[in-house]
Design brief:
Shape: elongated
Strand content: over 45%
Number of strands: 8
Radius of gyration: 16 Å
Number of helices: 0
Largest sheet: 4 strands, mixed
Oligomer: single chain
Distance between the termini: 31 Å
Order of helices and strands: EEEEEEEE
Helix content: under 10%
Length: 105
């Protein structure tokens, strides 16, 4: 994808919040273009959220997720300076990832 993933990670006490905006067309394959031709399916199939290099959340997505999905996650036991990363894979084999460092609020 041409736009980078936007990720923000904040921590208050030991509770961390991660917000992730993933630019992606998330096309279901059920819509048609103005000429009536079906648009090819193109959507994220899996995401993995890791904390300090260790996967903590894994999820499967499908065609019902909107374009440029925004996700929010809450984690316990994090501290300022911890690293969080997210990676995705789509049905065409394309991948994306981003990393952020938790900042205290």
């Amino acid at each position: 994808m041409s736009e980078p993933i936007k990720i923000r990670a904040t921590v208050k006490g030991t509770e961390g919040e991660i917000r992730v905006l993933m630019p992606h067309p998330m096309e279901s394959g059920q819509r048609r273009d103005p000429a009536g031709q079906a648009l090819a399916a193109h959507f994220i199939t899996s995401i993995t959220l890791s904390l300090n290099g260790r996967p903590v959340i894994e999820g499967a997505l499908g065609t019902a997720v909107s374009t440029n999905p925004l996700f929010a996650f809450q984690l316990q036991g994090v501290k300022a300076g911890d690293k969080v990363s997210i990676a995705w894979l789509d049905n065409k084999g394309q991948k994306g990832n981003a990393e952020a460092t938790f900042a205290a609020v």
